Amino acid sequence: MHFDALTLAAVVHELQQTLAGGRVQQVLLPDAHSVGLEVYARRARHYLLIAAAPGAGYLYLASQKLRRGVGKETPLLLLLRKYVRESLVARIEQPDPTERIVHFHCDHPAHGTTTLVAEPMGRLSNLLLLNPAGMILECVQRVRPGEHAQRVLMPGKPYSPPRPQPRLAPWDDGSDEYDVRLAALLARPGPLWKAIAEGVAGSSPTLGREVAWRVLGDANAPARAADVSAVAQVLRELWNAAYAPQPGVWLEQGRAVGYSAYGVGFRPGFTPRATMSQAIEEVLSVATGTSPTVPAGSDPYAALRRQTAAQLEAARRRVRRRLEAAQGDLPDPDAAARLWTVSE
After folding, report:
1. How far is 93 from 74, CA to CA, in rounded Å?
2. Containing H/E element for 321?
């Protein structure tokens, strides 16, 4: 199970049919690396969760109302409230279907257009807010200049997408060399799934194993045993899921342990689901053992509880100080008796 480019394409297809043209009514932070949007579209409220934690990037429509888990107002949250809340989601697009990048173009009546860029790319996952000129207003993961930085992602810097990798397209791009390059890819030593995952754009080990199973009947079959034409045909069939998804989950003992945007044959127990979001949410809820709208291991109201407890303790201290001060102003209860004794 991998949140690969094909999975993202299926989610984007769903969001285009559900959220496009809707109004963002609320913005919140379920945790430090996630953003939640409540969007009213087609006479219904929808809850979009975008997670950009390192190694756990994904996005989907949640079935339940999202809950705030971060009490502190961050720079990103303030900017999202200004530019995205009350905006219309004018357009949702995946610029390159083989890349895990999606753009949400938002049109605000007072502040104009901005673009929310989600990059659910494994350990490099990020979420960025751009102005109309393509400059970064804020992002979840800041990347400062350095010898290991492929991109500089900082407020005030121009946004640049990740560098394209020199991989083979998952469909025949019409070039005369396509079959030759695919044949060279299949000539590599090792299993077919690994050659697909490493050499075909937008692919993952999950997709690679499904290709191997459909072509050779064995998810771990060697690449050299595969026929070029058969592999090309299966890749085309699977990538049709970008435009006509067939989402589902893989069940083991009645529990969802994986998801995909297409029917899986190399794993038993594939069961269709109505939407890609439903499949993702089901697997995440099983994996974390928590509500799928709450990041694993987090208490959605922990920050609010801490804030409320601190406010209550401060109020108690104020009341105690006032009582102590008032106690000092009271007369000595034995003072009247002593005065009476002296007067006698």
Report:
1. 27
2. helix 302-329
pLDDT at 338: 62
Q: Taking a C-beta distance cutoff of 8 angstroms, is the pair 248, 264 a contact?
A: yes
**189 Cβ neighbours under 8 A, 6+ residues apart:** 222, 223, 224
Taking 70 as the pLDDT cut, the residues of the chain under it are 1, 147, 288-311, 313-314, 317, 328-344
Contacts of 277 (CB under 8 A, 6+ apart): 11, 14, 60, 61, 62, 63
- SS3 sequence, 128-151? EEECCCCEEEEECCCECCCCCCCC
Instruction: Write down the H helix ranges in 200-301.
Output: 205-216, 228-239, 276-288
Q: Print the SS3 string covering 287-307.
A: HHCCCCCCCCCCCCCHHHHHH
Rounded Cα–Cα distance for residues 156 and 126 (Å): 16
Q: What is the phi/psi pair of residue 242, to 5°?
A: -65, -25
* Burial environment of residue 303 by CB neighbours within 10 A (0 to 12, 13 to 18, 19 or more): middle
Q: What distance in Å separates the CA atoms of residue 72 and residue 91, rounded to the nearest whole number? A: 30
pLDDT at 318: 75
pLDDT at residue 271 in the model: 95
Degrees to nearest 5, angle at CA 305 with 303 and 311:
105
pTM, full prediction: 0.82
